[in-house]
Amino acid sequence: VRLHESLHLVIDAVNRIRSNALNTRLFAQLCEENDEHCDQLLLHTEVRWLSKGLCLTRFFALFEPIVEFLDTKDRILKENLMKRKTDIAYLTDLFTKFNMVNLQLQGDSLNLIKTKSILSAFLARVKLMKQNIGRGEFSQFPNLSQTSCQEDDVSTYVQHLNALYSDFESRFEDILTMVIPLWIFSPYGDIEETNVIIQEELTELSTNEELKVQFKNGNSGCKTTYPLLIPYDGI
Length: 235
Description:
Elements: H1 2-18, H2 24-31, H3 55-61, H4 63-73, H5 75-83, H6 85-104, H7 112-134, H8 151-171, H9 173-176, H10 182-185, H11 196-207, H12 209-216
Protein name: Zinc finger BED domain-containing protein 5
Organism: Acanthoscelides obtectus
C-alpha cells in the first residue's frame, strides 16, 4: 500500500506539472528521454505509463527542481514527495529492472526456453536483491543508495521484494516448472535418456548428415519427416 501511494504521488506531481501552462520547460525535461512525445502525453491517471521509457528515472533525476516547482503550486504534495523520496528512488531502480526484463521478452526469436531462462534469471536476481537490501547493501539500487534509507524503509522493501518473488513464481508457474527435454538442446546427444516413443525418430535425426547442417544453421526442417517431434517445435 505504501509503495502504491508513493507511485501515485509521482503521478500527481507529473499531472500538476503537465497542467501548468507556464511550466512547459520542466515538463519537457521530464519527457526528454521518454518514448512518448511531450505534446501527445495525456494526464497520467494510470500507473502503467510510469513503466514505459525512463519516466521514473527522469523524475528522480529532476527531483529537486520538481519539489521547488511544487513549493509554490502544491506544498502538501511537495512535502509528501519529500517524505517518500526513498520510496521513489527504490521504485525507480526496480522499474528499470522491469524494463530490462520486458525488453528481453520481446522479439520474434523468443521461445519458451528463452522465456523460462529470462524469468528464472530475474527471480534469482530478485532473491539476491532481497538478501542484499536486507543487510543494507544497496549496490543493486543506485538511486536508493543516494538517499537516507532507514530501517523501516529497508523492512518495507524486503517485504515488497518477497511479495514480488512470490507473485512472479505463482504467475509464471507453468513456464518456470516446465521440464525441457535435453534432446531439444542437443538432438545428437544420448538418445537412450529420451522418451522411448521418440527414440526411433531421434535415431534417424542423429544420423542424418543433411539435417545436422540445417540444425547448426538454426533450421531443422524435420516437421514432416519426424512428426513425433512436432509437439516440441514451439519450445
